[in-house]
Write a structure and sequence with these properties.
Elements (H helix, E strand, L loop, with lengths): L1 E10 L5 H18 L3 E6 L6 E9 L3 H16 L4 E10 L1
Antiparallel strand pairs: 1-3, 1-4, 2-3
Organism: Alteribacillus iranensis
InterPro entries: DUF503, TT1725-like_sf
Protein name: YlxP-like protein
């Protein structure tokens, strides 16, 4: 089972693309290091207060994939740098 979650986020305290990229890179690195997921910024690369991150997990058991993706979303929600706005799941 492959699960993917696409989440759009707002980043309020950035003043440049350089600051935004540092925050997004930090978030993606933390997700990959602490959880069994792959993550990447997918959209809005040229907007400095908005991003879209896709997180993917693979396992034979759908419940385990759901748990891992929920942990990733919880980690994003705990980060004060950004606010998650729109979240969509896909299952393959």
């Amino acid at each position: 089972m492959i699960g993917a979650v696409h989440c759009e986020c707002l980043i309020y305290q950035t003043q440049s693309l350089k600051e935004k990229r540092a925050i997004v890179k930090s978030i993606i690195t933390r997700l990959k290091q602490k959880l069994n997921v792959a993550a990447a910024e997918m959209d809005y690369q040229n907007l400095w207060q908005r991003t879209s991150v896709t997180i993917v997990s693979v396992n034979e058991n759908r419940r385990l994939v759901e748990k891992e993706l929920q942990k990733a979303l919880d980690m994003i929600d705990r980060m004060p740098e950004l606010e998650r706005t729109i979240t969509n799941y896909e299952w393959f």
